[in-house]
Amino acid sequence: MSSIMDSIFELVGYNRSTPGASMDNQQSFLLNGSSVNIVSRCQTELCEIIRHKFQCEATFEGVDFQGDSNVFKKKKAPDTPGKRFEVTLPSGTRVSVWKGDLTESKVDAIVNAANSKLQHGGGLAAAISKVGGSKIKNDSEAYIRTRGSLPTGKAILCNAGNLPCKKLIHAVGPHMPYKPNATEVSQARRQLEETIRGILDIVVEHQLTSVAMPAISSGLFNYPLADCAETIVNTVKLYFQSSPRNSVEVLLMNNDEPTVAAITRACHQIMGSQSSASYNQAAFSNTRGAANISPDIVQMGNVLVTLKRDKIEEQQTDVIVNTVGQTRHLSNALESNVDSPRKKAGPPHISLMGSTVESINEARRWLTGLLLKSSDEISIQNNFIQHLSDRQYQQLTRLTGDGVSVEEFLSKGHACINVSSHSREDGVLAALQVETMLREVQEAFVRGEEAEMKLITGSDASFERKIVDPSSQEFMSAVRPFRQVPLSPIKVERVENAALKMLFDFKKQQLKCASSRPMYQCIPAQFCDLVGRVGFHAEVAPPEAPNFGEGIYFTATVEKAREVWRANQEEHLYFVEAEVLEGHSTRGKPGLILPPVMENDPGVFNSVHGGPEVSVIFSGYQALPRYIITCGK
Description:
- The protein is of the alpha+beta class.
- The chain has 4 domains: 1-63 and 344-373, Ribosomal Protein S8, Chain: A, domain 1, CATH 3.30.1370; 82-328, Leucine Aminopeptidase, subunit E, domain 1, CATH 3.40.220.10; 374-456, K Homology domain, type 1 (Ribosomal Protein S8, Chain: A, domain 1), CATH 3.30.1370.10; 462-632, Phosphoenolpyruvate Carboxykinase, domain 3 (Alpha-Beta Complex), CATH 3.90.228.10.
- 36% of the residues lie in helices and 22% in strands.
- It has 17 helices and 24 strands.
- The chain has a 7-stranded mixed β-sheet with strand order 3-4-9-8-5-7-6, with helices on both faces. A 5-stranded antiparallel β-sheet has the order 16-17-24-20-18, with helices on both faces.
- The protein is globular and about 85 Å long.
- The two termini are 37 Å apart.
């Protein structure tokens, strides 16, 4: 217990970290009372919401997961698990791509995407540690005590504990900043190649016949997925082509569809398409006959692999594991026949891991307000509420009842949903369902905007948020306007988005604007990435009082921005500095959804204003985000 608490207190000391683009920033806080029950019922959705809103990963300890609550039962059908690709290399080595749970793989060895401290606190590492039991943690701590940190690019062989595989390989891939640039990716590629070769060296040296590995470094470690997939596949191919080796089966296995698709695509490009027709029929056919194959059997040389859907607790196997790798009770029950099956890993708590200290601060603030405060009413303010579909509104209607009330309203241009309940637990679960809907709506909105940008520009939308050196002249120029108000700039990020720049230039020519004007907008933390990806939209930062129209507001000064966007409950303030094309402008008024027509001209105004310090545009392409400035209050 004391070692667990020591770890928690160490995590709380995250403020000692320099704010940067690494997932090393961590913080934990304890759960109590109804918050434990809430987390136990909806941990999957909660993780997705936190990842979407704050770019943070959340893990839960000391909680017996009960499965998802009824309010979350309507989900998109999962993609079919199983094998997606298989090829036999000239050396006899078979390489295959699988969608599945690595912790269930009955191979000679599975690979854990570990960090240098072998602290398995998030993502796949946490799932492996939970299913494998205390042996995984004990062996890892023993290694660190005797040999120190495991360097990037290295791998070690350990016992597998309660996992169904025979051995466990801990491998440390490159840990990259959030949104790495081309130079950083190039440097990390060599480290990832070294990591994969180290894994395969262990497999060959210990005469293991099969190994299952994930897309190392692509998740929490921020390695771009497409490049990660190509690097792993190419390294495996070159390794077994370079010299004669024993025949080995390499399974590239992941549990999320985007990663599986990326690995499959890389295999087709690098190794060629040689997957069996029998598998393609079973995995990709959507005919009724294919759906009735049970169990699915895949021939892999002399080995038959059975893919079976059934009740896991009824299987007559040496070991059973939880299909999602998260159920604490099942994991503890497997650890030892002596241990109590109700034992938990210390007091219930949430651990947050994020790319920046600020993102963790925001996630902690939001979670604390949601889970630990005693108010009977939860208010969600987000103008993407207006994008909810009829189906989603029907879902909102179904949430009402059994003591839960869901009220939607529009006040001064702000869309809000209030959730109230006699039971705090039921109210929070209903609010999380609303947040899940908003996440889906925003993701669909961004996909649509990116598709439109690609259609216009002919290029894929991509962007980077690059931290500006605090000692540089660029940083000094960006924060100079903030010195006139009682704000402390913490960080400046330069936004680079070639597609948005192209669209901005198109708009500049169309409006025949000779120049643009640097202006500001204050936005919620959860929309910083959205603005960088698809630019400005009215839903992102509605003003406190939309007195000059329903468009996109900007201010000439930071001080005015604080006045226009007063209602901010977040830990920090997030300002976007943008170049704005005002063109021909006139005085705005409430209710305008487009600029008014010019009196003595067949055209329309390009924008409206509320005096010299407020400008309102009605096309997001009239503004180009340049910097995101994070300030302490």
